[in-house]
Amino acid sequence: RVVLSSDDAVALAQKHPEKTVVFIAVGFETTTPATAVAIRQAQELGLKNFTVLCGHKRVLPAMHALLSGRNDKIDAFLCPGHVSVILGSSAYDGVVKQFHRPCVVAGFEAEQILLGLAKICRQIADKKAAVDSVYTLAVRPEGNPVAVRMIDQVFVPCDGPWRGLGCIPAGALRIRDEYADFDAQKRFGIQQIPTEEPGGCQCGKVLCGLIEPSQCGLFGIKCTPDHPVGPCMVSTEGACAAWYKYQR
């Protein structure tokens, strides 16, 4: 059954105590706090039929992984506004200091993206690397400490698979042992099945800036938004999906 939020999943468990509800939780730090709230709410309500299959990922370890392999052509990061609302713009300080790459936070509107790109181009032209933001109305340097604290109380970082990039150290989250009753993976003994990338998929190289989407042999032929093969085409926010839409 499709639900619009974790709150809906909790309500569903309350409404149907005779059924076991498994909420599939996905997304980055933007959606993780809501899942944390749902788990704590279920505990407070004494719901024995509510569980969460956690698929949450962490942005910062992925950024570090992209740059740590020394096999990338990434000049800078246009950092996502919604994640930055939670983490804060200062969260990217470590990326700048360690890898000397500009990090500019922007929203998703066209004007925000253009302003963010302009800031990046200025830093590159000046041979500088710093954290900057054009989304100051929504993003504070410290982010949302309450939301971050909620994440830390319910989840703990763990190694996790990322499509196109493989397993990233501390790139995912698991539910803390204190909330094991609500962990579907533990409760039902769910094993993580190793998966392989589809043959010919070049999403890893696209993410690392090594090739443009159109240089993938599947792009626009076997891999389209209607029939995506790789993760970069699945999401409307993916590089391949954007390239496919705006190159035409």
Q: What's the SSE blueprint?
A:
Layout: H1 6-15, E1 21-27, H2 32-45, E2 50-56, H3 59-68, E3 77-80, H4 81-87, H5 93-99, E4 103-106, H6 110-125, E5 131-133, H7 145-154, E6 155-162, E7 166-175, H8 184-187, H9 203-207, H10 231-234, H11 239-246
Parallel strand pairs: 1-2, 3-4, 4-5
Antiparallel strand pairs: 6-7
Q: Can you walk me through this structure?
A:
The longest helix has 16 residues. This protein has 248 residues and is of the alpha/beta class. It folds into 3 domains: 94 residues, HypD, alpha/beta domain 2 (Rossmann fold, 3-Layer(aba) Sandwich), CATH 3.40.50.11740; 75 residues, Rossmann fold, CATH 3.40.50; 44 residues, no CATH class. Helix 1 runs parallel beside helix 2 and helix 2 packs across helix 7. It is globular and about 60 Å long. The strands form 3 sheets. Strands 3-4-5 form a 3-stranded parallel sheet. A two-stranded parallel ribbon has the order 1-2. The protein has a two-stranded antiparallel sheet with strand order 6-7. It has 11 helices and 7 strands. The relative contact order is 0.12.
Structure at a glance:
The protein is α/β, with parallel strands linked by helices and 248 residues long.
Which term fits the overall shape? globular
Strand content: 15-25%
CATH superfamily of the largest domain: HypD, alpha/beta domain 2
Number of helices: 11
CATH topology name of the largest domain = Rossmann fold
Major sheet summary line: 3 strands, parallel
What is the first-to-last residue Cα distance? Answer: 36 Å
Order of helices and strands: HEHEHEHHEHEHEEHHHH
CATH class of the largest domain: Alpha Beta
